[in-house]
């Protein structure tokens, strides 16, 4: 790792997430200073709190308070809030509002580079509310001169959050209900994702603002899950396909109320 990265300071939002905690430890191992922002910085382990390269700060997407970004070179923006309200009463996307506030704070502290972690579910015709929110944030960050990383399903590293729950479900069940079993996905190992985000974090001017990461050729969702079950638990999973279109129609209709 070159001398620039050793002296680099990175801020991470959503820092107590699966990707966030793995990324923090990844940076600290390389002697990169980390300012970690999350809802509850008290939840960080004692080992992290004692590390001289680490600082934790409270943060929510809805907060408009000043962020402790002094001497930060770049920001890895992982924070995301699921929209739980009905679509009838949905007026403001907290993720987009958080993006606006973060960019405003960057201008105050003269930070040139935000790397926003998005998803392959983010595209114009997406049916997912999660994907729609990510897509709107993508456009806002790119329009303001920052970088978007559109990632496939992330796996590997220390199992936390959704990935941990997924592995537990595979371990605990022989029969596994699944929607869109044959859906094409482009998984990426978390170490590869972290290496690329770290590389992008040292750039102040990028010629390309959107990076799509994952396997070059798609694999089916049920194949990916079956390989995880075999790798970690040496077991075969029997998948029970659920009617994806019917479930989508029902949940989409119920989501208005």
Percentage of residues in DSSP E strands: 15-25%
What's the main sheet like? 7 strands, parallel
* Unreliable segments of 5+ consecutive residues: 1-6
Distance between the termini: 52 Å
Mean pLDDT: 90
The radius of gyration computed from the alpha-carbon positions, rounded to a whole number of angstroms, is: 19 Å
Structural class by helix and strand composition: alpha/beta
Strand order of the largest sheet: 3-2-1-4-5-6-11
- Globally, the shape reads globular
The total count of strands amounts to 13
Helix content: 25-40%
Count of alpha and pi helical runs: 9
The succession of helices and strands, N to C, reads HEHEHEEHEHEEHEEEHEEHEH
Describe the protein.
The chain is globular and about 50 Å long. 39% of the residues lie in helices and 21% in strands. The N and C termini lie far apart (52 Å). Residues 1-6 have low confidence and may be disordered. With 257 residues, it is an alpha/beta fold. Strands 3-2-1-4-5-6-11 form a seven-stranded parallel β-sheet, sandwiched between helices. A two-stranded parallel sheet has the order 7-10. It has helices at 3-6, 18-29, 46-50, 94-109, 129-143, 161-172, 190-201, 221-233, 244-254; strands spanning 9-13, 33-38, 54-58, 74-77, 113-119, 147-151, 154-155, 175-179, 184-185, 188-189, 210-213, 219-220, 238-242. Strand 2 (33-38), helix 3 and strand 3 form a beta-alpha-beta unit. The protein contains nine helices and 13 strands. The relative contact order is 0.13.
């Amino acid at each position: 790792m070159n001398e620039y990265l050793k002296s680099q300071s990175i801020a991470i939002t959503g820092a107590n997430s699966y990707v966030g905690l793995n990324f923090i430890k990844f940076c600290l191992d390389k002697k990169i200073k980390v300012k970690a922002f999350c809802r509850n910085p008290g939840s960080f382990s004692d080992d992290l709190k004692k590390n001289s390269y680490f600082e934790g700060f409270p943060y929510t997407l809805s907060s408009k308070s000043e962020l402790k970004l002094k001497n930060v070179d770049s920001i890895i923006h992982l924070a995301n809030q699921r929209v739980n309200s009905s679509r009838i009463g949905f007026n403001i996307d907290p993720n987009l509002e958080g993006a606006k506030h973060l960019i405003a704070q960057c201008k105050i502290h003269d930070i040139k580079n935000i790397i926003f972690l998005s998803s392959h579910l983010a595209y114009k015709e997406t049916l997912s509310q999660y994907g729609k929110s990510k897509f709107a944030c993508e456009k806002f960050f790119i329009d303001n001169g920052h970088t978007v990383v559109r990632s496939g399903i992330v796996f590997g590293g220390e199992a936390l959050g959704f990935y941990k729950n997924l592995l537990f479900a595979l371990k605990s069940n022989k029969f596994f209900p699944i929607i869109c079993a044959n859906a094409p996905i482009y998984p990426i190992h978390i170490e590869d994702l972290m290496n690329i985000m770290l590389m992008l974090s040292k750039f102040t001017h990028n010629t390309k603002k959107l990076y799509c990461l994952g396997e070059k050729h798609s694999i089916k969702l049920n194949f990916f899950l079956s390989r995880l079950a075999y790798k970690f638990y040496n077991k075969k999973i029997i998948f029970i396909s659920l009617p994806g279109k019917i479930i989508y129609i029902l949940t989409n209709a119920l989501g208005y109320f």
